[in-house]
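The instructor's notes for this session suggest beginning with a concrete chain rather than abstract definitions. Hand out the sequence below and ask the class to guess, before any prediction is shown, which regions might be ordered.
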Amino acid sequence: MKRDNTMTRRYLVDAGITPGMRVLEIGCGNGEVTQELAELVGPSGSVVALDRNEGGLAMAQARITEQGIEHVRFAAADVTDDSSALDALQGEPFDALAGRRVLMYLPDPAAVLGRLAGRLRSGGLVVFEEADSTMVPARTAALAAHDQVTAWLRSMLVAEGANPAMGFALPATLAQAGLHFERIRAEAIILGQGTQYPLSVLLKMMQPRLTATGIATQAEVDSLAEQLEIESSDPTNVYIWSMSFCAWAYKP
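After discussion, reveal the predicted structure:
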């Protein structure tokens, strides 16, 4: 099942990503957002995508190559390391800086944004999508297995050093980075609707991280996955497991 990225694409369009832009993306992961950015800026624009995980970069490169997109360049860089990141950012200033669910993993996201904003032109756009899992889950039907997995995943993020409320912190973070905060929006993520992953699929994807952090054992994951399938059998159940925030700002 392919994840639905229409919400991210809508955020990027509304924030002002347009054809011809030169965009810097951080924390590109497997290239899902990279592809959206590349399609929005078109061949007259370009995207430089950074990630510190070379395995993820290989997946991202394969995705972009498969789509026949030629105006994207990937580079291995740790954005918390000045020299690592700056070595990959040669050339003309960027028109925009973007990312999805990456600031939540940075110890000092405002400092990183402040440094990277130095590679933007005056008036350049900064747009980030981040999650919040502190105000969910939300549901009317009793879905105990879903609630258990949601709690596991939130505990996993905390154990990994992530900020589960980064969505709420976006405006303050952008302002602390010396940027002119413009706007913030939020939408609920409803599991299993359209092409959003059911929670049972997400659980299997996250199993290595859950066991690595000691949150759940393989046996517990397998057992709960079966219960999730049963709870998901009724398509009329609405389960909000996360909130997605997007905020954008401009370089003065």
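Then share the key points. Residues 144-159 form the longest helix (16 residues). The chain is about 40% helix and 25% strand.
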